[in-house]
Design brief:
alpha/beta, 8-stranded mixed sheet, two-stranded antiparallel ribbon, binds uracil
Length: 206
């Protein structure tokens, strides 16, 4: 199921993020802030376990998140959301997945994968600012499921309707949290209106 965040703060920050005149430093800061706002909602359903805690005044029962939280940025643009995720969950484990697009088949080809080990009830958050075709996200989820990891949530800043459909068809039980579902993909598979190339804008490569 997909969840488009309609909070006014998300809409406001996304508008500045999209603006071609927004400089790189501000773009990066906004990408982090938006990640936090969207991920906060995405984590609403995490389970907790009761734990005793002593305040300076009394003992009480608090709670802690039950699952190991594992963040999986898809290289390279996903790294631009990592700070925001770690601001929310500083103790999270982090794995990396790298995909490049085969120019002929247009299919994602994995070239790097490094996942944390010894996980206890892991909940995976796959992060990529642009859910465009959805193919690299599907390939990443396929790879996690091959390793018997099946509690997975996707977080993106902007999605295309085509990408959402592709992920939902391949993995209907995976929740997708996004800041906006835009109009469509163009002939180069960029999201319209989108924000251009997220990696280039995050890392100043153009
Ligand atoms: N990747 C991007 O950076 N932007 C898009 O619009 C699509 C994929």
């Amino acid at each position: 199921m997909y969840h488009e965040n309609t909070h006014p703060l998300v809409k406001h920050k996304l508008t500045i993020l999209r603006d071609a005149a927004t400089p790189q430093q501000l773009f990066r800061e906004l990408a982090s802030e938006l990640t936090m706002l969207i991920a906060y909602e995405a984590m609403r359903h995490l389970e907790t376990t009761p734990v005793p805690v002593n305040t300076p005044l009394a003992g009480t029962i608090g709670c802690k998140i039950k699952n190991d939280i594992v963040i999986i940025p898809i290289l390279r643009a996903g790294v631009g959301m990592l700070d925001g995720m770690l601001s929310l969950v500083p103790y999270a484990r982090v794995g990396f997945v790298g995909m490049y697009r085969d120019q002929e088949t247009k299919q994602p080809v994995p070239y790097y994968e490094k996942l944390p080990r010894d996980l206890k009830d892991p909940h995976f958050y796959v992060i990529d600012p642009m859910l465009a075709t959805g193919r690299s996200i599907v390939a990443t989820i396929d790879s996690l499921k091959e390793k018997e990891f099946d509690t997975i949530t996707v977080i993106s800043l902007i999605s295309s309707p085509e990408g959402i459909k592709t992920v939902e068809e391949a993995h209907p039980e995976v929740d997708i949290y996004t800041g906006s579902i835009d109009e469509c993909l163009d002939e180069n598979e960029y999201i319209i209106p989108g924000l251009g190339d997220a990696g280039d804008r995050l890392f100043g490569t153009k």
